[in-house]
From TrEMBL:
Domain of life: Bacteria
Alphabetical list of SUPFAM superfamilies matching this protein: P-loop containing nucleoside triphosphate hydrolases, Ribosomal protein S5 domain 2-like
Start and end residues of each Mg chelatase-related protein C-terminal domain: 407-502
Upper classification of the organism: Bacteria, Bacillati, Bacillota, Clostridia, Lachnospirales
Domain Magnesium chelatase ChlI-like catalytic: 194-398
Gene Ontology molecular function, alphabetical: ATP binding
Name this polypeptide is given: YifB family Mg chelatase-like AAA ATPase
């Protein structure tokens, strides 16, 4: 007898529907699994067989063949246990085939018949909804995660017996619903971080405001204790709140990574990821035998903060070059190619030398060669991809003693939001949203300069020996400064400020 149930595999952060076909026939009592399977899926044979026995289902000695289709797609993980068990029970007549119509199953099975939670339920349920499925049966531990998707019924199941009774209409279960209007995207910072806590550093605050307004990458250079890390940690407080669509996109990444729990079914704050400088290339970009998202994908639509930038392994940070240009990371493996989104704002902080006090020769004992060797860990191609370079100067005693609360994050965020609204309106017919995403072609359209501005940029390009990439990034930053100023045109003062944010790298990285 033949039966079919539906499940899904995860590729990147997207779900792919998998048909679980079961055939029961006469012959030697063998349990075969086919369909390009990973080791976890092949082991499902024993888990499912013992789980069926311990759940009270007595199966005749038959030849059982399970096929997971499409056969050219590698199946990994333990989420296929439940659909395999359901397909087998349907083939033996325990469940009518018509009761499986437009239903998708996901879940790992224990030997006693209990159904355990799995990773990636959110993108799987979202894919099922897009493809017209009417209901999803998931582990009760994933119920809140799956219910985030509107327009499809999501049922949480504790064990195999409950699943069979539900499918036979012997047990009435109510689908779990989460109303999007009940989700809170308000700013609730447990650490009460605010830009008013930072003494001085007005130039750095201004640069950060520009960077956030246009989603530009920023580098802060300064001595230890100047407040670079303090500033970076407060960047999320001036970023716009997440929309539901953005939250869903981020949550899919965290679901695949297994970082969602039943009490946090939807990421409601912009990510702020700050990996240690000992991080490996695979952990930063993603990868592994079964590829998983790395830190740059976990920072999607948020901030990736790399403190002590030169202390990172050079080969590790060079990986950032491609994601910074394409806003995604591609991981190729023997079994397939995986793509993860990586549209993040890169924020980096570093000391100007190994001791941290160059060019103050009263404190710095580093030789010129030592300084060059230290900052030379950051390559020029990578530096070219950073739009804004700013110096965080040492705070003096009087500023600390007479500390007055400076501008709050709330007031800065209002200006950021105004600039963002201008960009959203300007790019309403484009496939991008922020100035940092402008391409060379669209730069010519949206960053037009007058005669004086062209002359100023030509002088800067020649004297500073800028690259074409740096030239384009100056135009993008000047466009953001003009938006903050409420100006439709880029003027000399906007262009001059943007050029200043490229002069610091010449100070430290000059030949």
């Amino acid at each position: 007898m033949f039966s079919k149930a539906f499940s899904a595999a995860v590729n990147g952060i997207d779900g792919i529907i998998v048909s679980v076909e079961a055939d029961v026939s006469d012959g030697l009592p063998i349990f075969d699994l086919v369909g390009y399977l990973g080791s976890e899926v092949r082991e499902a044979r024993e888990r499912v067989r013992i789980s069926l026995k311990n759940s009270g289902f007595q199966l005749p000695a038959k030849r059982i063949t399970i096929n997971l289709s499409p056969a050219d797609l590698r199946k990994e993980g333990t989420a296929f246990d439940l659909p395999i068990a359901i397909a087998i029970l349907t083939a033996f007549g325990y469940i009518p085939q018509e009761n499986l119509d437009k239903t998708l199953f996901v879940g790992e099975m224990s030997l006693n018949g209990e159904i355990n939670k799995v990773n990636g339920v959110l993108p799987i349920v979202y894919t099922a909804y897009k493809l017209g499925f009417e209901r999803c049966v998931v582990p009760v531990g994933n119920i809140k995660e799956g219910a985030v998707v509107q327009g499809i019924d999501v049922y949480g199941i504790k064990n195999l017996q409950e699943a069979v009774r539900f499918l036979n209409n012997e047990t009435i279960l109510e689908p779990y619903f989460i109303h999007t209007e009940d989700l809170s995207f308000t700013r609730e910072d447990a650490d009460n971080l605010d830009f008013s806590d930072v003494t001085g550093q007005e130039l750095a605050k201004r640069a950060i405001e520009i960077a956030v307004s246009g989603m530009h990458n920023i580098l802060m250079v300064g001595p230890p204790g100047a407040g670079k890390t303090m500033l970076a940690k407060r960047i999320p407080t001036i970023m716009p709140e997440l929309t539901f669509e953005e939250s869903l996109e981020i949550s899919k990444i965290y679901s695949v990574s297994g970082l969602l729990n039943n009490n946090c079914s939807l990421i409601q704050k912009r990510p702020f990821r700050s990996p240690h400088h000992t991080i490996t290339a695979a952990a930063l970009a993603g990868g592994g035998r079964t590829p998983m998202p790395g830190e740059i994908s976990l920072a999607h639509l948020g901030v990736l903060f790399l403190d002590e930038f030169p202390e990172f392994n050079r080969n590790t940070i060079e990986i950032l070059r491609q994601p910074l240009e394409e806003s995604e990371v591609t991981i190729a493996r023997l079994y397939g190619t995986y793509k993860y989104p990586a549209d993040f704002m890169l924020v980096t902080a570093m000391n100007p030398c190994s001791c941290g006090y160059y060019p103050d020769r009263n404190k710095c004992n580093c030789s010129i060669n030592q300084v060059k060797r230290y900052i030379g860990k950051i390559s020029r191609p990578l530096l070219d991809r950073i739009d804004i370079c700013i110096e965080a100067l040492q705070v003096n005693y009087k500023d600390l003693e007479n500390h007055k609360l400076s501008e709050t994050s709330e007031s800065i965020r209002k200006r950021v939001m105004s600039a963002r609204e201008i960009q959203l309106e300007r790019y309403r017919d484009e496939i991008f949203y922020f100035n940092s995403q402008l391409t060379p072609k669209t730069i010519n359209q949206y960053c037009k300069l007058g005669k004086k501005e062209k002359g100023l940029l030509e002088k800067a390009f020649t004297r500073m020996n800028l690259s074409a990439r740096a030239y384009h990034r100056i135009l993008k930053v000047s466009r953001t400064i003009a938006d903050l100023d409420g100006s439709e045109d880029i003027k000399e003062k906007h262009l001059s400020e943007a050029i200043c944010y490229r002069s610091l790298d010449k100070k430290y990285w000059e030949d």
